[in-house]
């Protein structure tokens, strides 16, 4: 079992440590004690709860796509020169940055405050874990 501390669980859930403790008391989450006495949450149980609580705005593009990693957000910044642009999109707690042609930015009408969908093809996603 991967054991997640109450404070880390709270961080992943976007709630306070006290809320996690209340959820343990109410039975929404199950906790156990490690040898040192620290209260921990089972990582799998936490992952299931995080997934069930996740909400994603409706994708405004309504297109059929093979890409499964689609994140709807708001454009927060566009930095352009004559040829290339950097577009920043805030998708929930995640900042996604895309480099594209300035022509594409104009064609898509991207500007701060625009709703946009960031599409990430899974073959280009790196996964990292904490070093123990």
Molecular structure report:
This protein is of the alpha+beta class and 132 residues long. Helices cover 27% and strands 33% of the residues. It is built from 4 helices and 7 strands, in the order βααββαβββαβ. The protein has helices at 6-13, 17-26, 43-53, 102-108; strands at residues 3-5, 31-33, 39-42, 69-80, 84-91, 94-101, 115-120. α1 crosses α2 (17-26). It is elongated. The two termini are 15 Å apart. The model has no long low-confidence stretch (mean pLDDT 90).
Order of helices and strands: EHHEEHEEEHE
Question: What would you call the structural class?
Answer: alpha+beta
Task: Please tell me the overall pLDDT.
Answer: 90
Shape: elongated
Beta strands, count: 7
C-alpha Rg (nearest Å): 19 Å
Individual helix count: 4
Strand content: 25-35%
Distance between the termini: 15 Å
Helix content: 25-40%
Q: Which strands sit side by side, in order, in the main sheet?
A: 6-5-4-7
Task: Give the low-confidence spans.
Answer: none
Strand count, sense and barrel status of the largest sheet are:
4 strands, antiparallel
